[in-house]
Amino acid sequence: MTETKDEDVGRLKAFLRDLYYGRTQRARYFRFALLVFDLLTIVFFLISSMADPAAAFHIVDIPIAAILLADLVARAIVANRPWRFFFRFTSIADLIVIFSLLAPLLLENLAFLRVVRMLRLLRSYHVVVELRETSAFFRRNEEIIQSTINLLVFVFVTTAIVYVIEVHTNPEINNYFDALYFTVATLTTTGFGDITLQDTLGRTVAVAIMVFGVALFLRLVQTIFRPQKVHYTCQTCGLNRHDPDAVHCKHCGEVLKIPTEGEW
């Protein structure tokens, strides 16, 4: 009986490992379906964060939570160290998102919990890994796409923090979009002044956004819009970023033989 149970567990692990890491057509379709689901849930979370918390369409929270929980458990099963898996930052973020979806069933429907779901954006890195394997366009523009994803994650998670802190104390911030407007105005150093944070905690967050956020925001924007580079290590000096059409290394002058796909 025990051997049969162990065999069943082994078959389940093998099946899930093939779905999440395999190279079969079935595995690729499965991971593509996960990518689509991730993107749809992110869009849903963005829309629901600005909607009435009692709106009827929030009934979809429960099936979304069930799918996220099943995905989390499946990834834990195939992990080399399942218990350590649950202490990863992305796993903790997923647990917080699942709790935020189920909390209204047990507690008062707290509006701020909907905004915590922006942590789901952290799963975008799973999308990055999959696209690197399947899309030639992504491989050519990976740095720009990754910087864009980092920028979106930073902006929306920072906005969620501003919203959670200010929504009940600041009459100027009534929904997620108000917090997004304040965050973007601060990060871009526009500072219209029509929305301000008055309490001590809010001002502390504003200072953190201005000191650390602006520098990171500008760095990410610079990465997105600066001329594209390719990764190729110079055998003489080790410089590994060059212009796509470079013939010589800018650092040491060594002749480069950067492989291309005939596009430059």
Q: Helicity level, as a percent range?
A: 55-70%
| Biggest sheet strand line-up | 1-2
Helix/strand order: HHHHHHHHHHHEE
Low-confidence stretches: none
Q: What portion of residues belong to β-strands? A: under 5%
Structural class: mainly alpha
Tally of alpha and pi helices? 11
- Rg estimate, integer Å: 23 Å
Shape: flat
Mean pLDDT: 76
Distance between the ends: 63 Å
Task: Give the strand tally.
Answer: 2
User: Major sheet, described briefly?
Assistant: 2 strands, antiparallel
Describe the protein's architecture and organization.
- 64% of the residues lie in helices and 2% in strands.
- Strands 1-2 form a two-stranded antiparallel sheet.
- It is flat and about 60 Å long.
- The model has no long low-confidence stretch (mean pLDDT 76).
Which key features would you list for this structure?
11 helices; flat; mainly alpha; two-stranded antiparallel ribbon; 264 residues
